[in-house]
UniProtKB/TrEMBL annotation, chain A:
Superkingdom, taxonomy of origin: Eukaryota
Listed GO MF terms: ATP binding
Keywords, in A-Z order: ATP-binding, Coiled coil, Nucleotide-binding
Keyword Coiled coil part of the UniProt annotation: yes
Family: Belongs to the protein kinase superfamily. STE Ser/Thr protein kinase family. STE20 subfamily.
Domain Protein kinase: 20-297
Keyword Nucleotide-binding found: yes
Binding residues annotated for ATP, in chain numbering: K50
Designated name of the protein: Protein kinase domain-containing protein
Automatic annotation (TrEMBL), chain B:
Source species, domain of life: Eukaryota
Coiled coil: 29-56
Protein's name according to its UniProt entry: Calcium-binding protein 39
InterPro entries: ARM-like, ARM-type_fold, Mo25
Family stated for the protein in its record: Belongs to the Mo25 family.
UniProt keyword list: Coiled coil
Source organism: Ilex paraguariensis (yerba mate)
Length: 362, 345
């Protein structure tokens, strides 16, 4: 049969760790390390390898498996797809394309502390909406939309990374994908405690009430994060219960009044778009598809605009990672009393074991 | 040259659609490798028809699907033997076509027409199609699509019963260790469904094939692959300790070779594996009717076992209390057995 010619022949990356040469460490989490590497058998192409220690990861193996399967059946230009994944001792190696400019969170932290300009934001968000629209159509949620999960390569291509039940396997703490941790200590705490700042009120309130519209809330928060350099409320400690109190009454207009940026003005279209996403009532938030038609995304510029206005003169991902690592060491003596709170964010291994008394030996 | 452009576009009836699907799938056969263009065209036609079928079965996001049309379509698919064509042609379809087919499959399979599911009946009469799908795990490009279709099938007890008894079931012991993590993961999900979803089918199977099954399973528990060891151990407790399998469990816990494996896993370098192993090991020890050989092993190794158990803890929380309580019981029992006078050989 001629079927081999039918599909565009994908490059088959080798399923053997010896076929990769690690160049540098570019991200680190509690149970995962991200490396920049090359693959000599495939024309020495540059890849990012996320090595997840499955024995340390809080995630249930069932979730890890589900995630791997979901990933493999998705294909969209704005979704970061793994080349392959395989086990190396206790670590799961996920080999991915190397997104050379890293995450928008780390770009902002290193070079745009007051946020990006609106034309740049529009380009990024439009691509992300297109990814979300595809995911939602396919019946999947992302569950963790934020600048740290938006990656960009040297040609200005924007991709959404770490989705699905990734909140549990791709380790929410400390590091997301290529996202080196942020530079300010308050944002560092964010990372340690998971990602409550981006969570929709209904998600924090009840763990069952997650729908597509929760991704839209997080998308709205991400828009503010890109515009402002950090998510709203991030000056508060990241305890879920505390954030919940605020998000319940959170209005974009209040945020505008209280924000302490240097009188940064947002356009009417931007404010309107974010306002729609941050409606307290999930059913009133627009779908990703509908948002794409919002006037904020009219006359959106192309990826070359990002290359010119954002990617020029950026420190490399490796340099940024080293920088944050030093900062992290400097703030090591901080106690993380939010640890308890974090537990609830992960899908633990909840399989109850049968008690001895429950068996029947007869 | 077709003038369809000028025709008023009338949507196809379910019968017309099924005929078009069937013709387009059969057309794939008549094209030879030399006619690359013709084959491409035929595949496009299949793809287009599958999109139409998906819309008819699940609506377009705005309009709800028509229930009568779904029934007619499902009936017609069975009557015209299109299911067999779907499965046999799956390996040559394109990425989107395969995804759409899998989507339609889950809807059609659970579709009741009158008082029965005609697609399930069709599969029961063409069981070899299940074997075909299982073998597809070896083809990495279509493995996940086949996995999805299989798991839909394995919601039905009769189909589970068939595959457990079929030689293709043994292939799963190989598939769950494939180097490609996605494929191995998918195969394990299916394997787990087979062993946990339909208690009585599993119980019958384990009773009839106890020795060959556990011989194979032992290879998973002692595999060099960390994930294989960890998940096969956890799965073992999920089916072995279930009430319908209690006779299997009683047989299992009096065999020295199984105890040896659990003792090995109890000192695995992974803490997760140690904990899971404890939850099976404890049953061997707590069994009030331990045979002499089991007691001898426990007595001989009691010092090492007690040291291991003292070092074992799950961490924090309510589960911890229960774990510690059980651990104490098990430690006491091992101590008691080790003092029994008549075990020296």
């Amino acid at each position: 049969m001629a079927h081999e010619e039918e599909e565009p022949r994908k490059v088959q990356y080798p399923l053997d760790s010896n076929c990769y040469k690690i160049l540098d460490e570019i991200g680190q989490g509690v149970s995962a390390i991200v490396y920049k590497a090359i693959c000599p058998p495939i024309n020495s192409s540059v890849v990012a390898i996320k090595a997840i220690d499955l024995d340390q990861s809080r995630a249930d193996l069932d979730n890890v498996r589900r995630e791997a399967k979901t990933m493999s059946l998705l294909s969209h230009p704005n979704i970061l797809k793994a080349h392959c994944s395989f086990m190396v001792d206790r670590r799961l190696w996920v080999v991915m394309p190397f997104m050379s400019a890293g995450s928008l969170q780390s770009i902002i932290a290193s070079s745009f502390p007051d946020g990006l300009s609106e034309p740049c934001i529009a380009i990024v968000l439009k691509e992300i909406l297109s990814a979300l629209s595809y995911l939602h159509d396919q019946g999947h949620l992302h569950r963790d939309v934020k600048a740290g999960n938006i990656l960009i390569d040297s040609s200005g291509t924007v991709k959404l990374a770490d989705f699905g039940v990734s909140a549990s396997i791709y380790e929410s703490s400390s590091c997301h994908g290529l996202a080196a941790s942020s530079s300010s200590s308050s944002l560092m705490l964010t990372d340690i405690a998971g990602t409550p700042y981006w969570m929709a009120p209904e998600v924090i309130h009840s763990h069952t009430g997650y729908s597509f519209k929760a991704d839209i809330w997080s998308f709205g928060i991400t828009a503010l994060e890109l515009a402002h350099g950090r998510p709203p409320l991030s000056h508060l400690p990241p305890s879920k219960s505390l954030i919940m109190k605020f998000t319940k009454h959170f209005r974009f207009s209040d945020y505008e009044k209280t924000k302490n940026s240097k009188n940064k003005k947002y356009s009417k279209a931007f404010k309107d778009m974010v306002g729609l996403c941050l409606d307290q009532d999930p059913s009133k938030r627009p779908s990703a598809n509908k948002l794409l038609k919002h006037s904020f995304f009219k006359n959106c510029k192309g990826s070359d605009f990002l290359v010119k206005n954002v990617l020029q003169d950026l420190p490399t991902v490796e340099q940024r990672f080293r920088g944050t690592k030093l900062q992290r060491l400097a703030s090591m003596n901080k106690t993380d009393d939010e640890d308890e709170d974090e537990e609830g964010l992960f899908l633990g291994d909840n399989m109850k074991q049968r008690r001895i008394s429950g068996w029947n030996f007869n | 040259m077709s003038f369809s452009f000028f025709k008023p576009s009338r949507p196809k009836t379910p019968q017309e659609l099924v005929k078009a699907i069937k013709d387009s799938l059969i057309a794939l056969d008549t094209k030879t490798v030399a006619e690359v263009k013709a084959l491409e065209k035929a595949l496009e036609e299949v793809e287009k028809n599958l999109v139409t079928m998906k819309l008819m079965l699940s609506g377009d996001g705005e309009a709800e699907p028509n229930v009568d049309q779904i029934s007619q379509l499902t009936l017609e698919i069975c009557k015209e033997d299109v299911i067999a064509l779907f499965i046999h042609k799956l390996p040559i379809l394109g990425w989107e076509a395969r995804k759409n087919l899998v989507h339609c499959w889950s809807i059609m399979l659970r579709q009741m027409v009158g008082s029965s599911c005609c697609c399930v009946q069709y599969m029961e009469n063409h069981l070899e199609l299940l074997d075909f799908l299982v073998v597809c795990y070896d083809n990495k490009d279509i493995a996940l699509n086949c996995g999805n279709m299989l798991r839909e099938c394995f919601k039905i007890p009769s189909l589970v019963k068939y595959i457990l008894e079929s030689p293709s079931f043994l292939l799963f012991f190989k598939f769950v260790e494939l180097p490609n993590f996605d494929v191995a993961s998918d195969a394990f999900s299916t394997f787990k469904d087979l062993l946990t979803k339909h208690a009585s089918a599993v119980s019958d199977f384990l009773t009839a094939h106890y020795n060959e099954f556990f011989e194979q399973y032992e290879k998973l528990l002692t595999s060099a692959n960390y994930v294989t060891r960890r998940q096969s151990l956890k799965l073992l407790s999920e089916f072995l300790l279930e009430p319908p399998n209690s006779h299997i469990m009683r047989r299992y816990i009096v065999e020295v070779r199984h105890l040896r494996i659990m003792m090995t896993l109890l000192k695995d370098s992974s803490k997760n594996i140690q904990i899971s192993a404890f939850h099976i090991f404890k049953v061997f020890v707590a069994n009030p009717n331990k045979p002499r050989e089991i007691k001898v092993i426990l007595a001989k190794n009691h010092e090492r076992l007690l040291a291991l158990l003292h070092n074992l803890s799950v961490g924090k929380g309510a589960e911890d209390d229960q774990f510690e309580e059980e651990k104490e019981l098990i430690i006491k029992e091992i101590e008691r057995v080790s003092r029994l006078p008549n075990l020296e050989s």
